[in-house]
Structures
1.
Amino acid sequence: MAVTATLSPPSVTPPTYHRIVSPTLTIPNDPLHPVPVGLLACQRDPLLRELTTTTVSCRVSQSPSVPSNGREGKKKKAGGPEPNAPLLEIVLHDTIIFPEGGGQPSDVGVLTSSDGELWDVVEAKRHGGHAVHYVRLKPAQTVDDALRVFSPGAVVGVSLGEDGFKRRLDHMCMHTSQHLLSAVLETKLNVETLAWSLTASPAPCYVELARGLTPEEIAFVQEEANKLVFEGRSVHVEVEELDPQVKVMSGPTVGIPSDYTGGVKRTVVIDGIDRNPCCGTHLPSIHNLQLFLLPHTETLARSTTSSVRLYFLSGPRLITHLTSTHTFLASTASIMSCGAPQVPDRVQQVIDERKKATKRVEDLEAELAAAIAGELAASVPREGGELVLHRHRTDDSTTALGFLSAISTAFMSKVAEKGATSPYLVVLSSAPSAQTSTSTTIVLVFGSDDKKVKEVGDGLKAKLTVKGGGKGPRWSGKFTGVWKEAREGTAVASILESIGF
């Protein structure tokens, strides 16, 4: 039975969430001038889904893809128009589409022009202090139409849409949880966060730490963080004018970027827990943000330093993780014909039985290889005469070469025990029972004369395009395709006849 769960975030941002603490700082109201990043509608009201604003500028992007702001762009947008479709750069007076920053990826959304046309915002970036919306044109949309409807002063509707808000909610949950986690790590364990990554959903996010944590420390941090979650501590944002002297990035994703020109310092405050400069969007409360820390860390070794990653989940990602984990466990329990609590024991039982079965097969194969080798060795004259033969087998084993090698080793041993001095040259081949054009047949050549073994190998390469090689008394290779005794077997016999002793 499938298990589902939902997360119900607050629907309205409290009026006390956004607080301008500088007496001279105001939100620009000129519709032809953009609100700087730090005072955007998405930062003032992170739960706002729609907004009506005006266009400040619109131009065709000089790049066919969204600029990476100096970062390696590993993200690939799924769906949507082809990358070679025209890309527009649109600056609005205000926006609810968050531009990438503070370690938080960009929102996606939709712009609605005055004629009712919908335009897809595939990403938003901060350029200096302004938010730039990158709009990828659909096949039916033209650049001329876009420049007309997004002329300066034109009224524009901005919407996150259902998918866009789910993405925003996920980002807010993980970002606010990161602030909480980092604060608890620093105050309770004196462990500083060096960096963090808001990974693509549904993968866990992580914080990078200067040292590893014991399982007991991880459990302690999780318990302390969730105590605060259950208290439902509130979150608010304090905004003030930026002192140019402190405009510095203090870490990879911490502090204020050196290229920021918006003139605004934004501090995210978790009541009684943390104060941290950040431009990202955050929920107005940590209530419902139960935090789960994966009970292990990952060590990263660099040329001069090392750090440790601690992975965490919260919000929709935690629900997805719990749902998928339960589904996997229930499916495994069904396959193993047991209850979920018995799965570890049953899996261990299967592993133990598999090891015993593998050992038994190995013993039987060794016994069979010795029997086949004995049969072949019996054909070698003690003195005078020679043995030249090809033996083909049908075998679906994944270790066919190992089995053929066991036969050759046992053969040589038995010939030595017999005291035979007659020369011999043997070709063994092994093909699967069901063959196709991509099937692989293993070929092994061994003999008493190294030179003749090599000659047979060269003949197999030339006549059957077998790929392989060898040294001394053994040569092995692979034939790709359907092996037929009437065709490939005859070719092997012809090669052996041409060699002779």
2.
Amino acid sequence: MFELLQKWAKGLKARFNHFDMGSIDDNTSGGCYSYRASKAALNIVTKSLAIDLQSEGITSVLLHPGYVRTDMTGWQGLVTAEASAAGLLHVLESGRPLNGRWYAYDGKEIPW
């Protein structure tokens, strides 16, 4: 399957969304063990894909949409869905290095 992905996805930008609870550097509150572990796993998979697929011209980047005002957050989010989506598109189209990096919707790079 990996070989098929390599042939199909030349030039593809693989992006993955998740919240910053997977950041070891930003964990100041503890708790949420299973959720944090799943997000940390996504981090390492994304970083490994960035290394393994770079020679194929495939970019792998993590994107944090922010705390978005949706029904999932009880409409208590800090950013609208429109602002989040526009910010994520801006990050992807900014020309900055993306491969193996993690960015928030506002353009800030998030430490692993």
3.
Amino acid sequence: MRGLVFDTQEEHEEFSSPVTMSSSQENGSSVNQDILSDNKTIWISRVDGSLRKMRQKPTASEVYGLELGEKILVELDERGCPNNYARYLLGAFAADLVRTGAKCPIHYSRGDNEALIPVKKELIETIERKFKYHEKGRSWVIDKLHESWRSHKTFLKGKYFDGKPLQEVLDNIPHEVEAAQWNPLVVLWNEPKKKKQSATNSANARKQVHYHTGGRKSIARKRKEMMDENSGKEPNRLTLWDATHKRKDGTYANEATKEKMVEANHLLETRAGGLEQVPEEVVNNVFLEVMGPEHGGRVRGMGLGPKPRDFYGITYKKFPNSSENEVGVEELVEKKIAEIVREHNKDKMIAETKHQKELSTVNRKCDMLLSVLSRVCQEVNMEMPINFDEESPEPRSSHSSYGPNFDRRESV
């Protein structure tokens, strides 16, 4: 499956055609859009439409050194998540921006504060002056900014606040923080409500036992690699989760993860009913039953970006819970057939009703015309013209009844 790169069809056509590489590449060579899917290469588009490579493993600081008009090309999957190597550079650059206090204030309690709306807009504009991606990727960029903003605050809190006397914290303003933002931030951290919330979050984090083993490689990139290795076939949710929780040697990160996968595979085999291609809904139900219900705003095991509403096509309140997961393939098929039948009957009823209305309209018009014609014939003492029945080739005279509004009359 080819990912999303361009905003418009014109841009797609521009870069789908072969474009000349930079002078540092071999003369006469050319590239097309397929190379943008390379997981290990980062490409930069120039104002004149040509492309050039970035060096291997570039840093976020190198983004600032791009020439005017140059943009790093970022490929997205169908969910709007970056899935090539440029994803790491995009994420690192976004994280670097939020660490700049003058550009992104940190003394607010939540990232969705209205005061931060113009800040986000400016940050996105800064990013899009350096990166080129399909407009669908903007949601991922916003999520990345939120995640980086929270992570930065967590880092500062752990390094400069936790376990230290309040006055000492206030007196020692970190060099990486704007002085005007430090005191309000410390006061916020020191509120009893925030302290309790922080303790709860820390306790929940310690309960995490299933660790992602991909390192810097995002789940979207791993998913793309698995599709490339399997002729474009998308791995199901359990297969993807299994691959992202194993070490390089093929062993699981810990016994707890291994136990979960054994349980999930057993349930999946039972629910599949011998089918070679297991319906996605069955896989999702098994996943939720084994791993637990979803949390608001994210989809477990799918990484940053996918939202429950987009992934399931329903709101969080309608997510299946453990009691609703006890469903097999046969029941799902029956439910699907029932839905199709209901839709078919509904469409059929609508079509029949429309046909009846049209037929009724035509009949009324015919009756009106015949009535007018009858009156005209009577006035001029003339017999009605011969006409044909709709279903009979035999002619009929005006003496025959033509419809509910036409009275049979004796000829004069």
4.
Amino acid sequence: MLIMDELMSKFIEPECFRQFMNVVQPNFKFVSRTIVVKNCLGIYACERRRLEDVFVKFGQRVCLTTDLWSSLQKIFLTCVLQSIYF
């Protein structure tokens, strides 16, 4: 949920979130923010390896360019541009 909705890891700490999850799923097991961050970094590393394997398999060069903007509401937006060279 945090990754898909691009939420910050501190989203799971407030009491209102815990109360909400107790209503939605009483068996939900709460974990600390550090565990959430560790799991997200693990998913990132796994997906990065999978992507690297795809590029090695097809022998193509790829150029990724990123840019970061912030809005007036302090929302950060990232854009990724991709170029594949054959």
